[in-house]
Specification:
Largest sheet: none
Low-confidence stretches: none
Radius of gyration: 22 Å
Order of helices and strands: HHHH
Number of domains: 1
Number of strands: 0
Distance between the termini: 74 Å
Strand content: under 5%
Shape: elongated
Helix content: 55-70%
Length: 128
């Protein structure tokens, strides 16, 4: 008897649903990364979907090992909290770095202009 045979049907259905849902969400994010035309649109695919897709996969893992071991397994909750807290912050920092890079290169792709939070330091005429 394998470990998979020990999982009852009431637990196998939500596990399968969460695995399929998480896989679909991650694939949609990867397609967004591949198909969208510029960096600012491309970053949204993985930034938004990684938290939900990884959350579904980790919750499915938590249910599976809780049923299999007959005791609560909460290691995945710590991983889920870490992913939920860090992924949006990292995406925001990457986007802000790209905006600053575009401002330095005087590109118009970002749609932002100097002023407020996006103010660049002024260079002296002798520095150029």
């Amino acid at each position: 008897m394998s470990e998979l045979d020990a999982v009852p049907a009431w637990a196998a259905l939500p596990i399968a649903f969460l695995l399929i849902l998480g896989g679909i969400i991650v694939v949609v994010g990867a397609l967004g990364l591949m198909r969208l035309p510029n960096f600012y649109q491309r970053i949204h695919g993985p930034a938004i979907t990684i938290t939900l897709g990884a959350g579904c996969l980790l919750i499915a893992s938590m249910i599976f090992f809780t049923v299999l071991r007959s005791r609560p397994v909460i290691h995945e909750l710590v991983i889920t909290l870490f992913v939920l807290m860090t992924a949006p912050v990292v995406a925001m920092l990457i986007m802000r770095a790209a905006v600053y890079r575009d401002l330095r290169a005087n590109k118009g792709e970002s749609g932002v202009t100097e002023g407020g939070v996006y103010e660049l330091p002024r260079q002296e005429k002798g520095d150029e």
